[in-house]
Amino acid sequence: MSSTGASVADETPSPGGRDPLSGDGAATGRLGDRIFAGATVGAGLLVVVVVVLVGIFLLAQALPALRVDQASFFTSTQWHTGSTLAFGIAGLLWATVATSIVALLVAVPFSVAIALFLTQYAPRWLSRPAAGLIDLLAAVPSIVYGLWGGYIVAGKWAPIQDGVSTVLGWIPLFAKVDGITGGSTLFFVGLVLAVMILPIITALSREIFDQTPTTHKEGAYALGATKWEMIRTAVLPFGKAGVISASMLGLGRALGETIAVMMILSGLPQGAPWTWSLFNGGATFASKIASDASEFSGGLSTGAYIAAGLVLFVLTFVVNAIARVIIDRRKAFTE
Amino acid sequence: MAKRIDVKDLDIFYGDFKAVEGVTMSVEPRSVTAFIGPSGCGKSTVLRTLNRMHEVIPGGRVEGKVLLDDQDLYAPTVDPVAVRRTVGMVFQRPNPFPTMSIKDNVAAGLKLNGVRNAKILDEVVERSLRGANLWNEVKDRLNKPGAGLSGGQQQRLCIARAIAVEPQVLLMDEPCSALDPISTLAIEELVHALKDRFTVVIVTHNMQQAARVSDRTAFFNLKATGQPGHLVEIDDTQTIFSNPTVSATEDYISGRFG
To answer: Domain A68-334's class?
Structure first.
């Protein structure tokens, strides 16, 4: 404000005078604006370039090994990377997907139940700190879960698993495998993974349930819904897509988990054939690559592992893409 | 099937805060009663105690009696869920369930009551949509999402949803405040028609609306901010708008309020 009290608004547009609406470049051309726009575009492009480069690197390193592969890459369960290369990913893929699915099947119902409790049932003095605690759990490093699962829980789980395979052993999925103890199976790894991904799914589900509009909830109550019926008519439909995408994020974490799986999961018994049993050992993509990393000698045998890494790369990509599609679809119907 | 409501010495609380004090009034069956008054005077709060929706809010509680044909809604043996099935409610903002189709929205209350028979559901859906003057507009798209309708249609869908369970009383909490004048007119005509079958209580900010749709009008006021609201008077709508007993009512209605 000038000492005379005149402002831009007082200036009348006149020929030769300054038109208050004429651009002085302030809105679009400022240097700071351009630098910031350039920086954000650059950062965005960089991410895309890095991802593409990783993909190209994996593909380029894997191709030479794939050319001399003596086994069928997608259907074989053997893994020989010695003088002759004969490797396939079927066993790794099965172990990776099976452990992750077990983890999801166990974790999602618990997560949804915990999230519903925290948002709909728990009093405020309890739900706030409990929610914070869950967020903290999501940040616990996986090696801690590996230690806990492998050295504390495994022994207690073994007799339960033996019991299950005695009763349900006629189903191939639950068949008993000689030489594999209860605490080192795919199924048990799935359980530990479930504990690992539970916090992240719970935290995201809790947030989405918390956002259920009061109008939807009151609409259900006003029709004479009980609390559970209100949850079924208002909260769950509203949160469904969010829970699915949260599960996908959890799945992504389970698929790529390395250290905890490596610590717990035993290999296939020496000389025994591969089976469908969840009570068998094995290796996931990540645990296989990590556990053999010390033996990488460069060249073709390493290429076999990189090919496996490429499949994991694509797998996680697909899972995240599905999650993205579901999130976008959710946007469409809430507007 | 419409019932009368008698409110006796009702105090309404949010936690320790007394929001409304000493309400005593009667609502006749098969009539429209309008609640008017300035913002914050507790008219919506009183409305929400008539179907025990008030206690959905944490800390919400009441003292006093609300009788529905001599049955105390707040008696210890009464289930609030059952009360809400008897006393339906329509809200300020249309709130159809967004993931449900038009048909499922109307049938939602019946399904909560355990009705599964497809033929009965279809009949009730049609009857309720006709009752809400919406049938002709939606009969060809019953399986489309309810959220795709216009605001006024959504509100009539919510009315259809409320009357589908055949309540004794229908509570409406400023049902037109989010609607344009034409949709408002449609709802007001509907309210006229509804009073043949239901006891209707409607909260409104719009005094012309109260004058147009209601048989009786209750005026609520509060002495000062932070003080509990109270019922000033309730009388025939004509009397309230032409010759009210209390001068505060006249001041409010004539715009000399404040």
So the answer is: mainly alpha
